[in-house]
Amino acid sequence: MPVSSEPGARAKMVEAVSDQARIAAMRSMLFHMGLAAKAGINASDFNCVALLDKEGPMPPQQLAERIGLGRGGAITVMVDRLEMAGYVRRRRHADDRGRVFVELVRGGPYNRLQKIIADVSLAFTELAESYSDAELAVIQDFASRANDVVLGQTLRLGGA
Questions:
Q1: How many helices (H) and strands (E) does the chain have?
Q2: Contact 4, 82 (CB under 8 A)
Q3: Which residues does 39 contact at the CB level (< 8 Å), separation at least 6?
Q4: N or C: which end of the chain has fewer CB within 10 A?
């Protein structure tokens, strides 16, 4: 990868990338809060729905850990709330009736949420299509590694 010969240019570029990452994180958080409000749920509930959408059913305690709630009653309250709103349901394990999984309910509220998300998905697709395959590979690599950094730092702070 070419490196600028201008003194201090690389440091400025690295700082600019870091600044843009912080701005993206802040705007993403605000976007998710707005999206959740539009869907009639709070941001934590939205994160729960998004995680189940991406990774599928999981036990409540695993779900709690993955969204940073830890163990205890908070996940029960969240699942109750999402169940009443029609986003999730509890399902007993087929072989071990004592084990419970939380799964996404596709339809109704979930479909309305997907319609709200469709515009941003289209905008990101259009943005991505403006880059070459080589540029997309670099962007994907950076985004993946940045996500790993964020997860690592979140775990260091005691979350997720």
A1: 6, 2
A2: no
A3: 46, 109, 112, 113, 116
A4: N
What residue segments make up the domains of the chain, in order of their start?
Answer: 9-129
125: left (phi over 0), alpha (psi -120 to 50) or beta: alpha
The Cα–Cα gap between 74 and 45 comes to: 11
Give per-residue pLDDT as tens, 40-93.
899 999 999 999 999 999 999 999 988 888 666 889 999 999 999 999 999 998
The Cα 130–Cα 84 span in angstroms is 42
CB burial string 74-90: b at 16+ within 10 A, e below = ebeebbebbeebebbee
pTM over 0.70: yes
Fold of 9-129: Arc Repressor Mutant, subunit A (1.10.10)
pLDDT of residue 152: 87
Q: Terminus-to-terminus CA distance in the chain, angstroms?
A: 34
- DSSP per position, 20-69: HHHHHHHHHHHHHHHHHHHHTS-HHHHHHHHHHHHH--B-HHHHHHHTT-
Q: Residue 2 to residues 6, 9, 21, 35, 133: CA-CA distances in angstroms?
A: 12, 12, 22, 40, 18
